[in-house]
Specification:
five-stranded mixed sheet; 2 domains; 12 strands; alpha/beta; single chain
């Protein structure tokens, strides 16, 4: 019998075994494994796991901890995961949010004998602060802890966290890995094989959070153009950032590729060949003016998410709500594949109209 990929169930052998390696659609299938091998190769990993969303991937790491654990996490990160982490106490764990770009603050947050996991996001969404992965790896491992890095924005094109000392790298594969905004997916990759990784894989199976075969195929289709897409988007972001610096309507341009960015030197060391396709701008006249600018654009799309081929603009603090570390005057920009000059013209026209 030919094993049909995407099936919900698989035929047993005459002796009741499964020599083909597949048992049930929720557990595994050929397309998922093929996409996982692609991600592992991109990250220089031994193994990768795909999930039905970035949140499913991230939360699986925390749910796989085998005892009450103290977690050190980036203060600025994707707000959905930060919000979930804030309630981690119900699972018996505790969390300390710190500015992980400040290594002294990271060291001070360690609780000897209690800290078992570091979770950092770099560049961090939506302020694009940079955390030194290698330095935090040293701190984490000295404490006997695991280091997980959300590298969604950097992508494996510009940063390979595992090569810098991370134990697990996470991606919201919905974003740059897919690149077409038509898949919701998450990914984890690791070096070696350990009990934590085994528990993560088991949680994925038991919770039913594996990616579907068709979504895996769509993800593979997107990854085939990952390099050319991400490099083009990063060049556009760099062009816009440089042109927008000093604009009278702006209080600040946040982009790690700018020499004036506080994390630029670290970014130069760990981001090879580009600084990502994301930037943020802070509007001088405040929150209402920022919302007005987003309302006036024509080429940019007002939408949540990032990493797709269409350029997106979003007023983040109104999305994240109370408790967000995001300034209320900030607009987050995800550069797509449109012409950089046209994107600049559209944005500066909106800045002029709104002011």
């Amino acid at each position: 019998m030919i094993i049909r990929d995407g099936t919900a169930t698989y035929l047993r052998d005459a002796d009741n075994g499964y020599r083909a390696g597949y048992v049930y659609g929720r557990t595994d299938n050929a397309s998922v494994q093929q996409a996982e091998r692609m991600i592992a190769a991109l990250e220089g990993a031994d193994e990768a796991l795909l999930f039905g969303s970035g949140m499913a991937a991230a939360t699986s790491v925390l749910l796989a901890l085998d005892k009450p654990t103290h977690i050190v996490a980036s203060q600025v990160m994707y707000y959905g995961f930060r919000e979930w982490l804030s309630g981690i106490g119900r699972y018996g764990h505790s969390v300390t949010f710190v500015d992980t770009s400040d290594l002294d603050a990271v060291r001070a947050a360690v609780r000897p004998g209690e800290t078992g996991l570091f979770w950092i996001e770099t560049p961090s969404n939506p302020l694009w602060t940079i955390t030194d992965i290698a330095a935090v790896s040293d701190i984490a491992h000295a404490a006997g802890a695991i280091l997980c890095v959300d590298s969604t924005v950097a992508t494996p094109i510009f940063t390979r966290p595992l090569a810098l000392g991370a134990d697990i790298v996470m991606h919201s594969a919905t974003k740059y890995l897919n690149g077409h905004s038509d898949v919701v997916a998450g990914a984890l990759a690791t070096v070696g094989h350990n009990p934590l990784w085994e528990r993560i894989a088991k949680i994925r199976s038991k919770f039913g959070s594996a990616l579907s075969p068709f979504d895996s195929w769509l993800l593979m289709r997107g990854m085939r153009t990952l390099d050319v897409r991400v490099r083009t988007q990063a060049q556009t972001a760099a062009t816009l950032a440089e042109k927008l610096v000093g604009h009278p309507a702006l209080a600040e341009v946040l982009y790690p590729g700018l020499a004036t960015h506080v994390g630029h030197d670290v970014a130069l060391r760990q981001m090879k060949g580009g600084f990502g396709g994301m930037l943020s701008i802070r509007i001088r006249n405040g929150a209402k003016a920022a919302v007005a600018v987003a309302a006036c654009v024509e080429l940019w799309n007002r939408a949540t998410s990032l990493g797709g081929i269409e350029s997106l603009i979003e007023h983040r603090s109104s999305i994240e709500g109370e408790g967000s570390p995001c300034p209320c005057d900030l607009l987050r920009l995800s550069c797509g594949l449109e012409d950089a000059d046209e994107l600049y013209y559209d944005l500066t026209r909106a800045l002029s109209v709104a002011s």
